[in-house]
Amino acid sequence: MAETDPRIVVDAIDVHYGAVQALFGVSLTVGAREVVAVLGGNASGKSTTIKSVLGLVRPSRGTITLDGVPVNGQRPDAIIARGVASVPEGRRVFPEMSVYENLLLGAYPRRHEAREIAGDLERVYEAFPRLKERRSQLAGTMSGGEQQMLALARAWLRRPTLVCIDEPSMGLSPRFVDQVYEVLQGWKAQGITILLVEQNARMALELADRAYVLQHGRVAVSGTASDLASDPQVRKAYLGAA
């Protein structure tokens, strides 16, 4: 699927932060309606990869295309306008705004669709009852897990066809991690394309169709999620297998 119907093609990109090189010739593809995970430890380059796709950092070499259109050098807002939603690392909710106001920001690109947004908000509240209970609460006073649910709901209100998610389980309790991945399984069933950066390799491989493992800014191994989950080296390095 990824080769015949690609949404994202990252081709041999290098990324530098000043004199420090973070990515070395990284290539990956994400097919339509596919979930692709990018795995790796700290400082492996996985967050830099997703930031490159979103236009938050600019590769010094290589190309990135979205639906066949080169997006190198485009501003993040121009990339988001192409039907992309982002769930950033650390949630990045607006702490001094209410849950309801944060959700409306997710729907801002659709602000002329008042009736549709109202219906989508009701569906969000059905899927996330805690957000309905706390819709008037300041987002910054919520727990980390509740903020992650808010970040996911805010992204869904964009009605995206492609979602880029950076470390959705970071800092969450096992209960909230399970809830996050239930949401992502639902998105997968809806046919939403997902590029997922994650340290929790076990959960990511259960969700993903394919995965790439980065080490020191390079793709060390790639393949189907099931193949990587059974690969002895991957299991030892990332899944805690003996």
UniProtKB/TrEMBL annotation:
<protein>
    <submittedName>
        <fullName>High-affinity branched-chain amino acid transport ATP-binding protein LivF</fullName>
    </submittedName>
</protein>
<keyword id="KW-0813">Transport</keyword>
<feature type="domain" description="ABC transporter">
    <location>
        <begin position="8"/>
        <end position="241"/>
    </location>
</feature>
<dbReference type="InterPro" id="IPR052156">
    <property type="entry name" value="BCAA_Transport_ATP-bd_LivF"/>
</dbReference>
<dbReference type="InterPro" id="IPR003593">
    <property type="entry name" value="AAA+_ATPase"/>
</dbReference>
<comment type="similarity">
    <text>Belongs to the ABC transporter superfamily.</text>
</comment>
<dbReference type="GO" id="GO:0005524">
    <property type="term" value="F:ATP binding"/>
</dbReference>
<dbReference type="InterPro" id="IPR027417">
    <property type="entry name" value="P-loop_NTPase"/>
</dbReference>
<keyword id="KW-0547">Nucleotide-binding</keyword>
<keyword id="KW-0029">Amino-acid transport</keyword>
<dbReference type="GO" id="GO:0015658">
    <property type="term" value="F:branched-chain amino acid transmembrane transporter activity"/>
</dbReference>
<dbReference type="Pfam" id="PF00005">
    <property type="entry name" value="ABC_tran"/>
</dbReference>
<dbReference type="GO" id="GO:0015807">
    <property type="term" value="P:L-amino acid transport"/>
</dbReference>
<dbReference type="GO" id="GO:0016887">
    <property type="term" value="F:ATP hydrolysis activity"/>
</dbReference>
<dbReference type="InterPro" id="IPR017871">
    <property type="entry name" value="ABC_transporter-like_CS"/>
</dbReference>
<keyword id="KW-0067">ATP-binding</keyword>
<dbReference type="InterPro" id="IPR003439">
    <property type="entry name" value="ABC_transporter-like_ATP-bd"/>
</dbReference>
